[in-house]
Design a protein that fits this description.
Largest interface: A-B, 55 and 45 residues
Helix content of chain B: 10-25%
Mean pLDDT of chain B: 93
Radius of gyration of chain A: 22 Å
Structural class of chain B: alpha/beta
Mean pLDDT of chain A: 92
Structural class of chain A: alpha+beta
Number of domains of chain A: 2
Number of strands of chain B: 15
Largest sheet of chain B: 7 strands, mixed
Bound molecules: iron/sulfur cluster, FE2/S2 (inorganic) cluster
Number of helices of chain B: 7
Distance between the termini of chain A: 38 Å
CATH class of the largest domain in chain B: Alpha Beta
Number of domains of chain B: 2
CATH topology of the largest domain in chain B: Rossmann fold
Number of strands of chain A: 12
Shape of chain A: globular
Oligomer: heterodimer
Order of helices and strands of chain A: EHEEEEEHHEEEHHEHHHHEEHHH
Strand content of chain A: 15-25%
CATH architecture of the largest domain in chain B: 3-Layer(aba) Sandwich
Distance between the termini of chain B: 38 Å
Amino acid sequence: MYKTAKEKLPAVLDAISRYFSLYLPVDYEDGAVFEAYSYGKTLSSKVNTVKSPKEYFFPQTETLVNFKVDGKSLSIIDPRRESEDFVIFGMRACDVKSLAILDRVFLSDPIDTYYENRRRHGIIVSMACSKPAATCFCTTFGIDPSEPDGDAILYLDKDTLYLNIKTEKGAKLLTPLQGIIVDCEQNEVDTQKNLIRERLKKLPLSSLQTTTFSSGKTDDFFSSEVWETLSDTCLGCGSCTYVCPTCHCYDIKDFKTADGIRRFRCWDSCMFSDFTQMSHGNPRTKQSERFRQRFMHKLVYYPTNHDGIFSCVGCGRCLKSCPINMNIVKVMKALGGEGNGKQ
Amino acid sequence: MVNSKDSLIPCLGIVTDIRVDTPDVKTFRVVASDGRKPFDHMPGQCAMLSIPGVGEAIFSITSSPTNTAYMEFSIKKCGCLTEWLHMIEVGQMITVRGPYGRPFPVDSAFLGKDLLFIAGGIGLAPLRSVINYCRHYRKRYGSIDIVYGARTPSDLVDYQEIVEEWSKDDGIRIHLTVDREAPEWTGHVGFVPDYVKSLHFDTNKTAVICGPPIMIKYTLQGLCELGFDKKQVYTTMELRMKCGIGKCGRCNIGSKYVCKDGPVFRCDELEELPDEY
Ligand code: SF4
Ligand code: FES
């Protein structure tokens, strides 16, 4: 464990940015966003950013391959380059956990080399949540925001900044931070951890439960009547998907450039009406069916394939971004995960 | 890392032959740019083909793995990419990647069994691969029955191969049918599911059904009425696909991904999936 005075935070950011590309959440009027650091930018304390930082590993759009066309003949240009080490600073526990969920998809055989490359080079500095938001329910999924995963954990209290280096990758920060941080005892953050845990217990969604959603429950939930009612006003806008840190569906499309063809992939949503559209029909014609797919995947299908791990981290983003005020909490409650939650 | 392969990066293929099968089906012969077969596969597996700039889609590999010289794809004109494919000429370069999916259990469950192949229309494409594989390793399997139907005689894919090669093999019986009477047609007339029922097959056979969803449904029903168990019947499923490797989420049904857990399913496995295909 290392520490320095909290007022040294700008110096810490600046020092890291001299060695690595650095990304951090920055406040804007309509919410915080992750973006590249430049001198003078300060770390947002908001829980949470509007969009998750998954895009640093799985960008919203990225080139997969380029083609050159010459009459009937064709050549392939591989656009992949080894990434350089970069730092995501101030990632919350939920977002860090979401990467483990994406890893199981993209790093399973056959490995997605685009994602793997960034994952291998991304150094994650997570940040303990001293003030969890009312929309947070990460504890429902067994996440501990007082001790997030990551290559290093940042704790900020009234006057001190603590940095707990957890991995070899995290230790790469020690060089830039030499002379700024000093050694300290692990237990110096204990009070803050306890405080966080106390606050978590009092959150409005703290009693939301996953016990009803164990794996292999496809039949029980698939034919439930709640889907029609819950999805009644769903616009199929996909906002929930785009802000979600665990959604990983993508589309592959070609685009004609001045000197060839670019094949790119981009985020896609199972909430969109043409997601499963084929030339000879569509297996999900109704919005209620698409709505059901999204939540069944998170609460039943993904856990069935991945040792009971849910594909939700309780970040609460969909609670804030859905125009009709629908979200996974309401879905879970309707399916019997009520607990004593108030919302 | 730049040298490591990624499943999403295709390899180049050259179309070396185009055969017109029916008014809307053509069979394309494809080799890699070095003139060899692009990659090995097993019967029932699929490949992603693309014309860059137009799009990419998944097709079943219709040639048998025992054909080591090239790959073949029988493709029906039914959308943007397939329209384009039907317009290309021999010598055109395309891209190909794969193989994808779980094949027919030709080296396990099918061994020693009497086989019954049932196809409708373009549904013969994936079956041609397994039929030719079984013909090649003829001794490994029992008798082979093939029921094949299409709307009209001219919609029967691979008609020449069926008549000139398959029907001449020992222990292979061919049962062709068309939906409606046609002037030059002297064979059976009627829909595949009804025809299958009327043929009263022995229920010890292992059956494979491939064709439009509605045909699969009624044929399976028919087989069950004859006394077949769903565990004896296999089929292949078609869904929209993008990645082919279980990551893009497109072909997800229940906890399965058709691109990697299918496209071949045993009919009792299908029952465990939610009903949305
Ligand atoms: S649940 Fe809400 S955010 Fe998601 S698609 Fe429907 S309307 Fe849009
Ligand atoms: S096609 Fe992408 S998951 Fe199956």
